[in-house]
From TrEMBL:
Keywords: Lipoprotein. Pfam families: YjbF (PF11102). It comes from the Bacteria. This is YjbF family lipoprotein.
Amino acid sequence: MRCLPLLVLLLSGCGPLVPESWVPAWADIPGAETLGLTDTLPEAEREEVPAAALAQADGEPALFLRWGGRQALAVLAQQSGENRMWRSAGGVVVATDGARVVATAGLRTWLAATRLDGPDPLDEPLLLDGREVALRRQVDLMRSDRSPEGMRFGVSLSCRLRGALVQPEAGPVALLITERCRGGGESFANRFWADPQTGGIYRSEQWIGPQGPMWVEVVNPPAS
């Protein structure tokens, strides 16, 4: 079993904790977590990183995040190999392992932990072109108030990933990896866009709990 970083609880004896000072109570988070960006994006711009976000990143490793009508720029705060933590000015924290979001904090519902049964197929995206691969994982979910009744530990998900080359209306050919998951009363599909030559994943839409998906766009990639 591959154990990935936890944001708030050290549930499985692995992974770092995020400092408590990084994660404010939900009531302390500004209503529009935008760093000066608009609260929502027009449909025509939903797949483009706003120029304001590019300017604010100022060359630093950063992700542009969108979820539930809100958006934020999150900069790299901590890194250990492929395990990274990203933090926005308003206190939204996202932990990633490679391209996969494995934990979140600072939202109404947090993805507290992710555990994979075996290697992550996303570690080698090019091998998914035209192939389907199964993956099982468990996730822990909790509400921001950390109340016991809002905690769900060990939610088991059965997933299948498949890649295919796609040609967007604008832009170069991409390798689109679709991951369909079911379990624990949930059913959803994640999507990852990768460079078909290098396998680098630069854009994704990922389930982060019952609140729905988070759109993740690489503004400036981190050093390997």
